[in-house]
TrEMBL record:
This is Acyl-CoA-binding protein, ACBP. It comes from Moelleriella libera RCEF 2490. InterPro entries: Acyl-CoA-binding_protein, Acyl-CoA-binding_sf, FERM/acyl-CoA-bd_prot_sf. One of its GO terms (molecular function) is fatty-acyl-CoA binding. It holds the Pfam family ACBP. It comes from the Eukaryota. The lineage of its organism: Eukaryota, Fungi, Dikarya, Ascomycota, Pezizomycotina. Residues 11-88 form the ACB domain.
Length: 102
């Protein structure tokens, strides 16, 4: 796991720490929700994800698509992506494991 660099949003930072403990806490997260969290995290931290080449593998393709959906398709700012991350993290923490839906 890559260490999270703190942002200027303590609520987002706390949500990231909680999500990183989901597995050890027994919180189940679907692949769709994992990808959504990933996309929101990358945009929320101002990071970019490079489009994988033809032989980049399915994992990298799905990760790029999750990032692209948040950044380009939905046009979320870093703050909006952080808010979406927090909302999904809270939903999952409460035991609602239904997949995120646009």
């Amino acid at each position: 796991m890559v260490e999270h660099k703190k942002t200027d949003n303590p609520e987002f930072d706390a949500a990231v720490e909680e999500v990183n403990k989901f597995k050890e806490g027994g919180v189940q997260v679907s692949q769709k929700n994992q990808l959504r969290l990933y996309g929101c995290y990358k945009v929320g931290c101002g990071q970019t994800v490079e489009k994988p080449g033809m032989f980049g593998g399915f994992d990298r393709k799905y990760m790029y698509e999750a990032y692209k959906q948040v950044k380009e398709d939905e046009g979320k700012s870093a703050k909006e992506a952080q808010d979406a991350y927090i909302a999904l993290a809270n939903k999952l923490k409460s035991g609602d494991n239904s997949d995120w839906d646009a």
